[in-house]
Design goal:
Blueprint: E1 3-7, H1 11-23, E2 27-31, H2 34-43, E3 50-54, H3 62-71, E4 77-82, H4 87-96, E5 100-103, H5 108-138, H6 146-158, E6 165-168, H7 175-184, E7 193-197, H8 206-211, H9 228-231, E8 236-240, H10 247-259, E9 261-262, E10 271-272, E11 276-281, H11 285-290, H12 296-302, E12 305-308, H13 319-334, E13 340-341, H14 343-351, H15 357-371, E14 375-376, H16 378-384
Parallel strand pairs: 1-2, 1-3, 3-4, 4-5, 6-11, 6-12, 7-8, 8-11, 13-14
Antiparallel strand pairs: 9-10
Helix pairs in contact: 2-3, 13-15, 14-16
């Protein structure tokens, strides 16, 4: 149940509200005026889900309390109550950020419904923040090597622009992490981030996937469908493994970049799109251009900013940090107590040729965490870092 703070200068009303709400199962605290209420909130900024606040109070009225709570950035839903309410007062309170406004004498049913809805909203906001925090942590770039510091500095410099970025690097190096960080630090961060794995989509379907299609434009097109460019409008589209895209799809992507317009498959109508394009590839696009498998004009459109992500073998100094990060993450995922790893084991990990890069490294650590005792030793690394039975 939601935790409530009641701010009202009339003792009888405060106590009556507390009796009713406690009976309904709520945890309730009382404040005799606005200053006392703010003091309680500032001491316990995460304790309450809903505040019931009277408007007409001495020294500090309810609107001032509302403004102070919002300025303090405390995550709580505020329901204003007043026996002197007018439509203008209610509108002002809602405009300033109150969840709702209820007139005295209070309609008990309406009050309880409002508190329940406000509590549900508060819980939803909290869950959303937790999920965003998890997503943000999921896409952390871990490392302090010169190469990683250079990449992080480059991201900080270009993220707030709309410049197109081409990210290169071997499989498993973390190119998608760079793309996510670019989006998260950009002015488009609250808009969609739409990822397209160009290598995973059959060449005959890539145009429909990117640009959408009209009903009946091909055999299985049973209804109109928006493509990834439309879905990403206002945000960022990440074209992963763009080196695997067909030449015909490349031509359409080039047109979209030149004109900021796309056409769905089966339609001649142009649709304006506002997207930032980030692309990534594990291929040498210069060689692909020489082999006539990648358009040179598209390459130049995409590579306004070039970021090369180093292989793990090029940044082995980051292995201790990566080890600590992944052990904590893996233990949490499997619901087991955090395990330790010896310094000798970390040195042993640094000797390995990581052809699969970060992806392979994390898989090996997961194997070690599952198969080893409380502390992973250098002997464990020698035994389990290679496929079992090899």
């Amino acid at each position: 149940m939601a935790k409530l703070l009641v701010i009202d200068d009339e003792r009888a009303i405060r106590n009556t509200l507390k009796d009713i709400l406690v009976y309904e199962g709520y945890d309730v605290m009382l404040a005799e005026d606005g200053k006392a209420g703010l003091e309680i909130l500032n001491k316990n900024p995460k304790l309450f889900d809903v505040v019931l606040c009277d408007i007409k109070m001495p020294e500090m009225d309810g609107i001032e309390v509302l403004e102070n709570i919002l300025e303090s950035d405390i995550d709580v839903q505020i329901v204003m109550i007043s026996g002197h309410g007018t439509v203008d007062t209610a509108v002002e309170a809602i405009k300033k950020g109150a969840y709702d406004f209820i007139e005295k004498p209070l309609d008990l049913n309406r009050l309880l419904v409002t508190i329940k809805n406000a509590g549900d909203r508060s819980e939803l906001i909290t869950q959303t923040k937790v999920l965003k925090n998890k997503v943000s942590k999921k896409y952390q770039i871990i490392g302090e090597s010169p190469a990683i510091k250079q990449i992080l500095a480059m991201i900080d410099r270009v993220a707030e622009t709309d410049a197109r970025v081409l990210i290169t690097g071997d499989n498993g190096t973390g190119k998608e992490l760079v793309a996510h960080r670019l989006h998260e630090k950009s002015k488009r961060a609250k808009a969609p981030f739409v990822e397209v794995n160009c290598a995973a989509i059959p060449s005959e379907l890539i145009e429909s996937e990117l640009f959408g299609h009209e009903k009946g434009s091909f055999t299985s097109a049973h209804k109109q469908r928006k493509g990834k460019f439309e879905q990403a409008s206002g945000g960022t589209i990440f074209l992963d493994e763009i080196g695997d895209m067909s030449l015909s799809a490349q031509a359409k992507v080039l047109r979209a970049l030149q004109e900021n317009k796309i056409s769905r498959v089966g339609s001649d109508k142009s649709i304006k799109v506002d997207v930032r394009v980030i692309a990534a590839t594990n291929k040498d696009l210069r060689k692909e251009i020489e082999n006539n498998t990648f358009r040179e004009d598209l390459y130049h459109r995409l590579s306004v900013i070039l970021i090369k992500v180093p292989s793990l073998n090029e940044r082995k100094d980051d292995i201790p940090l990566l080890t600590t990060h992944f052990i904590k993450q893996i233990c949490l995922e499997h619901g087991i107590a955090k395990k330790n790893i010896s310094d000798k084991a970390i040195k042993e990990l640094q000797k390995i040729n990581w052809t699969g890069n970060i992806r392979e490294f994390r898989n090996v650590l997961e194997r070690l965490i599952i198969l080893c005792e409380d502390t992973v030793t250098d002997s464990d690394v020698k035994l389990f870092a290679q496929p079992i039975g090899k």
